[in-house]
Design a protein that fits this description.
mainly alpha; Rhopdopsin 7-helix transmembrane proteins; 9 helices
Length: 236
């Protein structure tokens, strides 16, 4: 039974624990702050809170899975991502609409489609459901490319150019998170799946955990900062 408890020397397990607690704290923060901003931004902060709430629940399960088995919780990660990543993509659409930018529903559909393609083939490859894991990786990257194009050069990116300075700045920071911050996931796929054994399981999980910590919480904080600025708040 001792193996079922987090050990002080289990650094990877500690990162699972820290991220789960940080996600809970972030959820409380986003939901509380959503009560203080203009109504146009409340949905954005609600979605940010939902992202961290879902992640908190899954990290609680992933921590226990790691402590008991010492293995990567692939299924839990992808269930988490299948819920939270589309919500993050929806945020691009929501903040543009809240700022009064003209962005069509087609942008929303393309972002969602790209997300589902990216996650579906990522899971099929990493879970070894597709025997050709390199092909699964390539198809997943197509989904990511659709997202990148849409937020940089597509309808969403063009709509952001028409928004005010605060929205443009926040939109730019968010899309750079998607481009740079999310790059750790395909790198992890290459190292952990296509080059099996190239990176230790412990190290790969630590990197994934810290990437989720930054990419989800920082994403929400950028939206919160935008909402506060637009609402005319000067102190919190």
């Amino acid at each position: 039974m001792e193996k079922m408890f987090l050990q002080s020397g289990d650094f990877t397990g500690v990162t699972f624990w820290l991220v789960s607690i940080a996600m809970i704290a972030s959820t409380v923060f986003f939901l509380y702050e959503g009560l203080t901003v203009k109504k146009e931004w409340r949905l954005s902060l609600l979605v940010a809170g939902l992202v961290t709430l879902v992640a908190a629940v899954h990290y609680d399960y992933m921590r226990d899975f790691w402590v008991v088995t010492g293995e990567t919780p692939v299924v839990y990660r992808y269930i988490d991502w299948l819920i939270t990543v589309p919500l993050l993509m929806i945020e691009f659409f929501i903040i543009l609409r809240a700022a009064g930018s003209k962005v069509g529903n087609g942008s929303f559909v393309r972002l969602l489609f790209g997300t589902l393609i990216m996650l579906l083939f990522g899971f099929l490859g990493e879970a070894e459901i597709m025997t050709n894991q390199a092909l699964a990786f390539g198809l997943g990257m197509v989904g990511w490319a659709i997202i990148i194009y849409e937020i940089f050069a597509g309808a969403a990116g063009n709509a952001a150019k028409e928004a005010n300075e605060a929205v443009r700045s926040a939109f730019s920071a968010m899309r750079w998170i998607v481009l740079v911050g999310w790059a750790i996931y395909p790198i992890g796929y290459i190292a952990g799946v296509l080059m099996e054994g190239a990176v230790a399981t412990e190290s790969l999980n630590v990197v994934y955990n810290l990437a989720d910590f930054v990419n989800k919480i920082l994403f929400g904080l950028i939206i919160w900062n935008l909402a506060v600025k637009d609402s005319g708040e000067t102190s919190h």
